[in-house]
Structures are given as structure tokens and as C-alpha cells.
Design brief:
Helices cover about 30% and strands about 25% of the residues. It has about 200 residues and is an alpha+beta fold. The chain starts with a helix and ends in a 5-residue tail after the last strand. It is elongated and about 70 Å long. Strand 6 and strand 7 form a beta hairpin. The longest helix has 23 residues. It contains five helices and twelve strands. The strands form four sheets. A five-stranded mixed beta sheet has the order 7-6-12-9-10. Strands 2-1-5 form a three-stranded antiparallel beta sheet, covered by helices on one side. Among the domains are: about 60 residues, wza like fold; about 80 residues, Outer membrane lipoprotein wza domain like (Outer membrane lipoprotein wza fold like), CATH 3.10.560.
């Protein structure tokens, strides 16, 4: 009888220890910190691309430079802007903060002992009009091409002329894109820069 009692008690203790172990092992309990950590990791996405690009307009103000006036300029095709005394400086591919630091470094201490530089960039937009489903302006974030921009506008209508899509640059330069060919050859799918306008004409029936 005593032996049976001991066996019973030892078995019971074993289940108690198993229960304690199960509660203390990380990740074993449903809905524990392991699940929350996975959710947080999934939500922690990289920030959107905030690099300056060709045709972005930047505004630069100076405090402490007596002969320096505020400067506004669109980034040129070669990715540079031109500033007083220092000439060309690379802007495309940098964040606003990086450009601000580089401009300051170019002036101080070589030309000025102290100088406060502030760089701002305009909101980026492009326009898609004509025979697309949603005529509108769209925020330019990340890289865009003509086909991607048209897809953002809901795609072509049934009356669109795919072969004579007009892409107008900020400087007025107009390019004609054959989107049928661009679908097969990505080199023909031209990049879309901030300020660009896309017009899809109506095909002649």
C-alpha cells in the first residue's frame, strides 16, 4: 500500500514539474512574447526612399554668409546644383540632411568661419492625364517609369493610343513612348521624374 502511495505521489510531482517547465520555457505559451515580437518585426519596415533625384527643386538658405542669398534650383540632369563660390555640388542620391551637411562643409571653414545652412525640398509629384482611368497628380516616391505611372493612374482606357504616349519633362522637353514596345523592352520604359507630365492621347478609330 505504501508503495502505491509513493508511486502515485511521484507521478503527481512529475506532472507538476512538467507544468512548471512548460510555463517557463520562452515561446511555449500561445500569445506570449514570441508572437508579439514577430508582429513588431513585421511592422518595422524601412523608411520610404527620401533621396533627392534629378529635377527635384531644392531651396537653400544661409545665415551668417553676408554675400550669400537664398538659392533655389532644380537638380540638373547630371545630378548637381551650382552654388555661389563653390560651383557644382552633387545633390542627386543624397537625403536633404546629407546635402545640407555637404553644403556646410564646402563653405566652412574654407570660406566662412560660421554659417548656418538650411536645405528644403519641395513635395514631389507627377501628373498623368488623357486616356487613363484616373486623371490626377500623384506623389513621386521611389522609382517610377511611364508604365508604372500609368498603372498608378488605373491603367489605360479602352480608347488609349498606347503607341504615342507623351512624356513632358519639367524643362519642356517632350518624348514619345510606344508603350506596346516598352512592355517587351524595359529600356524603352523611360523613367518618370518629379514634375513630369504624362499624356495618353485617344487613338483614332
Amino acid at each position: 500500500m505504501n508503495r502505491m502511495v509513493k508511486l502515485f505521489l511521484s507521478g503527481r510531482m512529475m506532472w507538476v514539474w512538467l507544468l512548471v517547465l512548460g510555463l517557463t520555457v520562452p515561446g511555449c505559451a500561445t500569445g506570449g512574447s514570441g508572437g508579439a515580437a514577430a508582429t513588431d518585426t513585421g511592422a518595422s519596415k524601412p523608411p520610404p526612399d527620401d533621396k533627392l533625384r534629378v529635377n527635384d527643386q531644392v531651396s537653400i538658405s544661409f545665415q551668417g554668409g553676408i554675400d550669400l542669398n537664398a538659392h533655389e534650383e532644380r537638380i540638373k540632369e547630371d545630378g548637381t546644383i551650382t552654388l555661389k563660390h563653390i560651383g557644382s555640388i552633387k545633390a542627386a542620391g543624397k537625403t536633404v540632411g546629407e546635402l545640407q551637411a555637404d553644403v556646410h562643409k564646402a563653405y566652412v571653414p574654407k570660406l566662412y568661419r560660421t554659417l548656418v545652412v538650411t536645405v528644403k525640398a519641395e513635395d514631389r509629384f507627377f501628373w498623368v492625364n488623357g486616356e487613363v482611368k484616373i486623371n490626377n497628380r500623384y506623389v513621386h516616391s521611389g522609382e517610377h517609369t511611364v508604365l508604372k505611372a500609368i498603372a498608378t493612374a488605373g491603367g489605360f482606357t479602352d480608347f488609349a493610343n498606347w503607341k504615342k504616349v507623351e512624356l513632358t519633362r519639367v524643362d519642356g522637353k517632350k518624348l514619345i513612348i510606344d508603350c506596346k514596345k516598352a512592355q517587351k523592352d524595359s529600356k524603352l520604359d523611360l523613367p518618370v521624374y518629379p514634375g513630369d507630365r504624362i499624356f495618353v492621347p485617344r487613338r483614332i478609330i
